[in-house]
């Protein structure tokens, strides 16, 4: 059974920009109701007004929430329990910084784990049981191509995405007979504010030709979700790079990763 995107209620976290905004725009023509969650309320409200103008009858609820804060999450979830049920949960919110581990700020690392791991798990824990009870629903978790691989300079971020990958695969197996569709999206570089805002102290950036737009990422994510795919990897180059990674011996990949780390360390000490 496909997820209830058509005429359903869809909650999207990190909806104020990037992939989350693209998902909201693409689902606005299909969903009955969107619940948009992010920290930047003004941007959410502007997006909500635009979506309402473009589609008559669409209900759009705006919820300002710092999902890395447990109290804020609890208040959000308590408020949602008093309204119409959530048919589809899209866990898109997340961030990462590119830095050698010992040079990274602890407060950023702590918040990264809280947002990328704890918040995603918390929302699933509260919103999945009603889906199971009604025998239909969907969870779309945004992981990363790094959830299927690893490189230096992103140790904690990659660790959080490996968690999302393992958690989502296990959750999918548990819910396979319940009517709840569970899919993870593992994009490579996407042209969004995520990459513009991320601190980079390594002196390295991914080549631009491998990056895709947020709109392409969202479209491929939705298409794969509707086909009940376990994993969606948007973008031709990243799909093939990950296929190459999958058949590369670990010892060789470790050597490659070690070689890549050397200029990062040199850049930081220059």
Quick description:
With 270 residues, the chain is α/β, with parallel strands linked by helices. The protein has a single domain (9-269), classed as Rossmann fold, CATH 3.40.50.
What does this structure look like?
By secondary structure, the protein is of the alpha/beta class. The protein has a single domain (9-269), classed as NAD(P)-binding Rossmann-like Domain (Rossmann fold). 50% of the residues lie in helices and 14% in strands. It contains nine helices and nine strands. It has helices at 18-27, 41-54, 70-81, 106-134, 155-174, 193-197, 214-226, 236-247, 250-269, and strands at 9-13, 33-38, 59-64, 88-91, 137-142, 180-185, 190-191, 212-213, 231-232. The chain has a seven-stranded parallel beta sheet, sandwiched between helices. Strands 7-8 form a two-stranded parallel sheet. Strand 2 (33-38), helix 2 (41-54) and strand 3 (59-64) form a beta-alpha-beta unit. The longest helix is centred in the middle third of the chain and has 29 residues, at 106-134. The radius of gyration is 19 Å and the shape is globular. The mean pLDDT is 91.
């Amino acid at each position: 059974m496909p997820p209830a995107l058509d005429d359903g209620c869809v909650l999207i976290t990190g909806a104020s920009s990037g992939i989350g905004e693209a998902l909201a725009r693409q689902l606005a023509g299909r969903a009955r109701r969107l619940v948009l969650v992010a920290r930047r309320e003004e941007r959410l409200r502007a997006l909500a007004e635009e979506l309402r103008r473009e589609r008559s009858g669409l209900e759009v609820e705006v919820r300002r929430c710092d999902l890395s804060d447990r109290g804020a999450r609890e208040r959000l979830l308590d408020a949602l329990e008093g309204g119409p049920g959530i048919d589809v949960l899209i866990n898109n919110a997340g961030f990462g910084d590119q830095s050698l581990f010992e040079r990274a700020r602890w407060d950023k690392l702590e918040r990264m784990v809280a947002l990328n791991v704890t918040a995603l798990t918390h929302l699933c824990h509260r919103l999945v049981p009603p889906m199971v009870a009604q025998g239909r629903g969907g969870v779309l978790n945004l992981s990363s191509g790094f959830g299927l691989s690893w490189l230096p300079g992103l140790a904690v971020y990659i660790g959080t995405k490996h968690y999302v990958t393992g958690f989502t695969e296990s959750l999918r197996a548990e819910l396979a007979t319940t009517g709840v569709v569970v899919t993870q999206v593992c994009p490579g570089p996407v042209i969004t504010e995520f990459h513009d805002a991320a601190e980079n102290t390594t002196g390295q950036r991914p080549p631009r030709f491998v990056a895709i737009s947020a709109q392409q990422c969202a479209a491929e994510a939705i298409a794969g979700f509707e086909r009940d795919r376990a994993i969606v990897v948007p973008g031709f180059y990243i799909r093939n790079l990950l296929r190459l990674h999958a058949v590369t011996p670990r010892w060789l990949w470790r050597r490659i990763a070690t070689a890549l780390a050397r200029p990062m360390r040199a850049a930081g000490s220059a």
